[in-house]
Specification:
3 helices, about 45% helix
Length: about 170
């Protein structure tokens, strides 16, 4: 039989924990286990509570918001890596099977294709009877454009020479 003082103390402790949980106050680092023989292990963190499911191994963060407590699963990077490794291993096996089956080239023909250059210009014109090549001469418009370009280039060269001469004569 227990002494009355001990029973009252334990009831007070339970009441304080219940009030703290109801008011949203801080709880001890390890809370009482869930009804399923300690399935969840909880640890207090600055954002709320970290919950570990001891059966499945999933970890969740629980925090209090306006509507109450909400728990969100922490992403498990290991499961994502395992899934990617499995996918890559299956792809490697598929490719090994294709390689072992031998080369399969679709649309292959035994004859060589004729060599042709799509950028090659057509044959030059041949005058009738003389068998001489005709070379097209530039038009007057083409000559005027070339002459205009050369005049501008010559003027720029002369201007540049004059500037250099002035700079050199001014410094001596």
């Amino acid at each position: 039989m227990r002494p009355a003082k001990s029973s009252t103390t334990s009831w007070c402790a339970v009441a304080i924990v219940a009030v703290a949980m109801a008011s949203g106050g801080p709880v001890a680092a390890q809370s009482a286990p869930d009804g399923e023989n300690g399935r969840y292990s909880m640890t207090q963190i600055p954002e709320g509570v970290l919950r570990l499911d001891t059966r499945t191994g999933t970890v969740s963060t629980c925090s209090r918001n306006g509507a109450g407590w909400a728990c969100y699963a922490v992403p498990d990077e290991r499961s994502a890596l395992d899934a990617e490794i499995g996918r890559l291993q299956a792809e490697v096996e598929t490719l090994k099977g294709q390689l072992a089956a031998g080369p399969t080239v679709s649309g292959k023909i035994d004859e060589a294709l004729p060599k042709s250059d799509s950028l090659k210009k057509g044959e030059p014109k041949v005058a009738e009877g003389d068998r001489k090549l005709e070379i097209p001469l530039p038009s007057d418009q083409d000559l005027d454009r070339a002459m205009s370009f050369l005049e501008k280039a010559w003027r720029r060269l002369i201007d540049m020479a004059n500037r250099v001469q002035k700079d050199v004569s001014g410094k001596i």
